[in-house]
Specification:
A 3-stranded mixed sheet has the order 1-2-3, with no helix packed on it. The protein starts with a strand and ends in a 9-residue tail after the last helix. The chain is α+β, with helices and mostly antiparallel strands. Strand 1 (5-9), helix 1 and strand 2 (24-30) form a beta-alpha-beta unit. The protein has one domain (5-86). Helices cover 32% and strands 16% of the residues. It is built from 3 helices and 3 strands, in the order βαβαβα. It has helices at 18-21, 32-44, 74-86, and strands spanning 5-9, 24-30, 62-64.
């Protein structure tokens, strides 16, 4: 593929036509399942207080996909992910 794409929200590799899959580098995943599970678990344990809860790299609320085999160095990406969690890399939140 001359160009690669990065999907968002869900694993876009499984959402595109087979001929387009070779163009999918990765997808950034919103792990809604993690948020729903944690919220239900807190409610069931009588610990749910309402309000805003942030789901991020540290608690598994977001992640990335390796579907399609385009990610060549997942270990390096995991290392960068850990550096973000540890605060060694500051990710800007404004454009």
């Amino acid at each position: 593929a001359d160009r690669l794409a990065i999907g968002v929200d869900s694993d876009q590799y499984f959402q595109v036509d087979e001929d387009q899959q070779k163009c999918m580098l990765s997808s950034m995943l919103k792990r809604v399942d993690v948020g729903v599970y944690q919220t239900i678990s807190m409610f069931a344990a009588g610990e749910f207080k309402g309000g805003t809860e942030v789901f991020d790299l540290a608690n598994g609320g977001i992640g990335f996909s390796e579907a399609g085999g385009q990610v060549k160095d997942a270990a390096q990406i995991e290392d960068l992910k850990q550096q973000i969690i540890d605060g060694a890399i500051d990710v800007p939140t404004a454009p």
